[in-house]
Design a protein that fits this description.
Oligomer: single chain
Helix content: over 70%
Number of helices: 14
Radius of gyration: 23 Å
Distance between the termini: 89 Å
Number of strands: 0
Structural class: mainly alpha
Shape: globular
Length: about 325
């Protein structure tokens, strides 16, 4: 029998060891590409549960929690697809070029396969939650994929499409527990999302300056004065809409106690504008919420006050 070449065995062993050592890094790169910080947006699915006063219903809580998990999987799949589509543009961005796919830490084939698995699992959960909810989940997917491929290249339509994704989250939260939700809440969600989306566009335009078009061609259609004017319009509309909601929505206490939450909204908007205009933040609202203690305290204060009014005031 011919003797086995020890160098071949050593090479194969080293290759296996490299793969074993590389797996944690690959898993971490995949998790980062799934953007778990962005899952905070899916908290909107619990709005219907809270404002319908269904927190004491275990069945409704369980369905809302499952819907939250489902949208996290759906969102992560779309983030992977978006990063695959935008890989070349992301490499021109001072921050996005560090993303795992753009930097080469996560191979494209693994990213594409992972997106397919996430979609399959998410759609299976959606089907289990019922036809109406499944329709909302599919509509969300169509919207996000359309945004990644076409809508983000259309001026004004791009920020409206981003905002529509937030509204669909709020709608899915109501659908999954079979409760009606006030149209005012949809309007307020849309305006709040527009406020954040326009602020993000402003930050990108300011950060990238002359190279903005190379990263995102649609930025050529925007200017800082235009975006500032859009923010002013949306801000005013959001404050008025939310104020009207607090004393006109049928599902709220008739004594007008919900109006006590208006100062939280006003301060939160002003604080965010301060961070955008003075400190130059706004590129990642989900990071800003966690990084700025004043903003985080405002959101928590608003949430606690809403809960007290809804569940203790009659």
């Amino acid at each position: 029998m011919p003797e086995r070449d020890p160098s071949v065995t050593t090479t194969h062993s080293a290759s296996r060891e490299d793969r074993v050592r590389g797996f944690p890094a690959l898993a971490r790169a995949l998790l980062l590409s799934m953007r778990p910080k962005q899952w905070s947006k899916n908290v909107l699915l619990f709005l219907a549960l809270v404002f319908a006063r269904s927190l004491a219903d275990p069945h409704a809580v369980a369905r809302s929690a499952l819907a939250f998990v489902d949208f996290c999987l759906l969102a992560s799949a779309t983030y992977l697809v978006n990063d695959l589509v935008d890989v070349e543009q992301d490499r021109l961005h001072p921050t996005k070029r560090k993303r795992p796919i753009a930097s080469g830490q996560l191979p494209r084939k693994i990213a594409a396969g992972s997106a397919a698995v996430l979609l399959a699992v998410a759609l299976g959960i959606a089907i289990a939650l019922g036809a109406a909810y499944s329709a909302s989940a599919v509509l969300y997917l169509l919207m996000t994929f359309s945004y990644s491929l076409w809508l983000k290249h259309m001026v004004i339509i791009d920020v409206l499409a981003v905002s529509a994704g937030f509204v669909l989250r709020a709608a899915a939260g109501a659908i999954v527990i079979s409760v009606p939700i006030s149209p005012w809440l949809y309007v307020c969600t849309l305006l709040g999302a527009l406020f954040l989306a326009i602020g993000k566009r402003r930050h990108e335009l300011l950060l990238l300056q002359t190279s903005a078009v190379n990263h995102r061609r649609i930025l050529e259609e925007y200017s800082l004065p235009l975006l500032d004017q859009m923010i002013s319009v949306v801000t005013s509309a959001a404050v008025i809409a939310y104020s009207l909601y607090t004393f006109s929505a049928e599902n709220l206490p008739r004594n007008g106690a919900m109006m006590l939450t208006i100062p939280f909204l006003v301060y939160g908007i002003f604080r965010y504008l301060y961070l955008v205009h003075v400190r130059g933040d706004g590129g990642a609202p989900e990071d800003l919420l966690l990084a700025d203690r004043h903003l985080l305290a405002t959101v928590l204060g608003w949430g606690v006050t809403c809960m007290l009014i809804l569940y203790l005031v009659h």
